[in-house]
Design brief:
It contains 18 helices and 9 strands. By secondary structure, it is mainly α. Keywords: Cell membrane, Heme, Iron, Membrane, Metal-binding, Repeat, Signal. It is found in: Cell membrane.
């Protein structure tokens, strides 16, 4: 062999190795490094189909709910609090005894899109099968291939639900599904829809199941709308989840994303932080486990779709900044203004006297939709318990806010929360009490649920005249969040 031939063959070997490395990197990006550490594919498995399924699992955020805190990936066991009791996510690894290893494609499809287990029993709608019902056949096949051939089996038994009889009976769930869950049908965009908007709609309303948290729920825990055809309720904001608010994703300029651009939404979903907002609570899990791995095209499609939704009535008008509080804090003359002195001493160093925060680090409290929400649970919870801004591939730094429940008493926390909610042009009620904080801190009771019977209105109680909903305005599910507790993502 000549020197030239040796060099040529060496170059070909290098190119083949480079192609293999690039291919592995692509699969790693789609599946995520921790999830890509699966056993080798079966001989008859289509590697491209498995890789596609891994990406669809990211779109569906399957790992966040089906992985317990400090648990094994997809082995289940995460506690999900519901208004009727505790549910624990199930093992969805291909283990044949405790997982889904014995499921056929048809049985897998029935579980994902119809909410029916292999044994024929209905699933609780903590499993968002009403949204998954619009997933396409091709995506279901790819997802099945991934879970059968790309996920490591885990021998871990499922935990029984902690729901009292008679609500523990599953058979009524079949009637619930017939009444409220859409029939499985692959998503088809309306004629003439922009293909980018259509892709965004599919992700948001289908595998992404954004409405499961961001749409209010009705009397029987059904989402009040599954897409824009449902009117202003769709993505109008949910109730507290683990004492974090899932805010409106509609174009309300005060309570929603009316002042956000498509680029803002793209960057927020990709990195978890933008100049005027930062991810926290349950959404931190979504970004850390899932959306940071989405393709740029899919993220932009989601952003374009959300911004294309029909306008909704601006519940609180528009936001106008007011510098009265800024001038008071600058002067140091906070006497007579409850909470102002505490803000100056404890909060201003990060969120600044003008309430503007620090871009991509400490979110502003001035004009923040979470701050001005009718429900103060979220802002009160983050002051009391603190929060974590997770690292992502695109913003590799973790920022934490300390929990002030170890520094301030309940009355002081209530005072500073009320000050924040009524300053810099924020026009939210300032009636959080020390009792509210004490219940939130010790028993995890959302502030809106701390109402006497017969005091609810049509927006704070089940029937408009009777028992206040235990999870605020609209029933919702509350899975434990991993961020700040579990570094597995």
């Amino acid at each position: 062999m000549t020197s030239f031939e040796q060099k040529r063959r060496g170059g070909e070997t290098m190119i083949k190795g480079l192609k293999a490395a690039i291919g592995a990197a692509v699969v790693g990006l789609l599946a995520g490094t921790s999830l890509g550490a699966a056993p080798g594919l079966a001989q008859d498995a289509d590697g491209d189909l498995v890789a596609k399924g891994a990406y669809i699992a990211r779109l569906g955020d399957c790992v966040a709910c089906h992985t317990a805190l400090h648990g094994k990936v997809y082995a289940g066991g995460l506690e999900i609090k519901t208004p009727i009791g505790k549910i624990y996510s199930t093992n969805i690894t291909p283990d044949p005894t405790h997982g889904i290893g014995g499921y056929t494609l048809k049985e897998f499809d029935d579980a994902v899109r119809r909410g029916v287990r292999k044994d024929g029993s209905p699933l609780y709608p903590a499993m968002p099968y009403p949204s998954f019902a619009r997933m396409t056949d091709d995506d279901i096949k790819a997802l099945y291939a991934y879970f059968m051939h790309g996920v490591k089996p885990q021998v871990q038994a499922n935990r029984p639900t902690d729901i009292s009889w008679p609500l523990s009976m599953r058979w009524p769930l079949g009637f619930w599904a017939k009444m409220f869950a859409p029939a499985p049908k692959g998503f088809t965009p309306a004629p003439g829809t922009d293909p980018v908007v259509a892709r965004g709609e599919y992700i948001v309303t289908g595998p992404g199941h954004c409405g499961a948290c961001h749409t209010p729920r009705g009397l029987t825990m059904q989402e009040k709308a599954y897409d824009a055809a449902g009117g202003a309720d769709f993505l109008a904001g949910g109730a507290p989840i683990d004492n974090w608010i899932a805010p409106s994703l509609r174009n309300d300029p005060v309570l929603g994303i009316g002042r956000w651009s498509e680029e803002d939404l793209f960057q927020f979903l990709k990195s978890g932080r933008i100049d005027h907002s930062a991810v926290f609570g349950g959404m931190a899990d979504v970004v850390a486990w899932s959306t940071q791995y989405f393709t740029d095209d899919d993220l932009r499609a989601m952003a374009k779709y959300l911004k294309s939704l029909p306008p909704v009535p601006a519940a609180k008008g528009d936001y106008t900044y007011d510098d009265t509080a800024t001038k008071m804090l600058d002067s140091g003359n906070t006497a007579g203004k409850a909470g102002a002195d505490i803000y100056l001493q404890q909060c201003a160093i990060c969120h600044r006297n003008d309430g503007g925060g620090v871009a991509r680090m400490f979110p502003p409290v001035a004009g923040n939709p979470i701050v001005v929400s009718d429900d103060p649970t979220s802002v009160a919870h983050i002051v009391a318990a603190g929060g974590i801004l997770p690292l992502t591939n695109w913003a590799p730094s973790t920022v934490a806010m300390p929990g002030y429940q170890h520094i301030l008493n309940d009355q002081q926390i209530a005072d500073v929360v009320n000050f924040i909610r009524s300053s810099w042009g924020n026009k939210a009620s300032s009636n959080v009490s020390a009792s509210d904080i004490e219940k939130l801190r010790t028993s995890g009771t959302p502030i809106t649920s701390a109402q006497a019977w017969l005091s609810g209105s049509s927006t704070t109680s089940n029937w408009g005249f009777s028992i206040p909903q235990p999870y605020g305005s609209g029933w919702t599910f509350a899975p434990a969040t991993h961020t700040g507790v579990d570094a597995a993502q």
